[in-house]
């Protein structure tokens, strides 16, 4: 193994001469992808495997097995969301600086519009999710409303950032990363807040009446994130591999 590593590093075609900026960019990109795989993978696990598995368990088995699994899985789930988003933001900020300097641009709405619009989108989504109107909590209804919300937010973001210097990469990540920002809030604001109570109640063997509502909110939020991960991954791929904007 040592000889193979030495051969790779000493080969004439291998080099790390891209400079400090290039090395930081590739480091941030690698960490961002690593954390993102963990986050999105666990999200798919909860929706496709974890929830059906818990539903099939007998009550006594669920009381023992579910808390052991969920405590560990939720720890990785929520913290990988943070690292995914903040490594990605660091990478994106550097890309913005490179584009602005190359174009000689002196003004940009891109950073403040990103945080304002995508945070506001989540606040509206939370309002829908927490509204005491059961009709809004039906899966297809919430899906349509959420899709309209994120589509409108993406359009507003593009409208505010149409000065001409913004590259396809910067705009694509502004949308894909915005979905990630939205999803991170969903993890911490809904899924984690509900699941930590459900895990505690399951371990104690005392399920209060409000548990049903907590389970519904957690399931809706988890499914929302699972579906939003599809356009999120699309826009992150578009950033480097498809000239969608500009």
Structural features:
246 residues; mainly alpha
Total beta strands? 0
Which of globular, elongated, flat, extended, rod-shaped describes the shape?
flat
Strand content: under 5%
Rg over CA atoms:
21 Å
Q: Describe the sheet with the most strands.
A: none
* SS element count, helices: 7
State the secondary-structure class.
Answer: mainly alpha
**Helical coverage, percent range:** over 70%
Terminal-residue CA separation: 46 Å
- SSE topology string: HHHHHHH
Mean pLDDT: 89
Number of domains: 1
Runs with pLDDT <50, length 5+?
Answer: none
Would you mind describing this structure in some detail?
The chain has 246 residues and is mostly helical. It has helices at residues 2-10, 20-56, 59-103, 110-130, 139-160, 168-204, 211-241. It has one domain. The protein contains seven helices and no strands. The radius of gyration is 21 Å and the shape is flat.
Topology of this protein?
Elements: H1 2-10, H2 20-56, H3 59-103, H4 110-130, H5 139-160, H6 168-204, H7 211-241
Helix pairs in contact: 2-3, 2-7, 3-6, 4-5, 4-6, 5-6, 6-7
């Amino acid at each position: 193994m040592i000889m193979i590593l030495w051969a790779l590093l000493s080969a004439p075609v291998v080099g790390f001469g891209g400079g400090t900026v290039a090395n930081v960019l590739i480091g941030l990109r690698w960490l961002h992808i690593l954390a993102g795989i963990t986050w999105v993978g666990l999200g798919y696990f909860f929706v496709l495997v974890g929830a059906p598995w818990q539903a099939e368990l007998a009550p006594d088995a669920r009381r023992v097995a579910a808390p052991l699994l969920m405590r560990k899985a939720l720890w990785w789930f929520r913290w990988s969301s943070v690292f995914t988003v903040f490594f990605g933001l660091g990478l994106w900020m550097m890309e913005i600086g490179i584009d602005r300097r190359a174009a000689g641009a002196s003004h940009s709405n891109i950073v403040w519009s990103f945080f304002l619009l995508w945070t506001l989108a989540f606040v509206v989504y939370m309002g829908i999710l927490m509204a005491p109107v059961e009709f809004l909590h039906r899966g297809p209804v919430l899906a349509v409303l959420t899709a309209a919300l994120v589509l409108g937010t993406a359009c507003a973001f593009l409208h505010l950032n149409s000065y001409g210097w913004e590259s396809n990469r910067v705009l694509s990540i502004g949308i894909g990363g915005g979905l990630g920002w939205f999803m991170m809030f969903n993890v911490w604001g809904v899924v984690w807040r509900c699941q930590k109570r459900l895990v505690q109640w399951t371990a104690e063997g005392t399920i209060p009446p409000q548990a049903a509502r907590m389970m519904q909110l957690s399931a809706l939020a988890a499914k929302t994130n699972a579906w939003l991960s599809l356009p999120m991954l699309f826009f992150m791929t578009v950033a480097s591999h498809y000239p969608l904007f500009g």
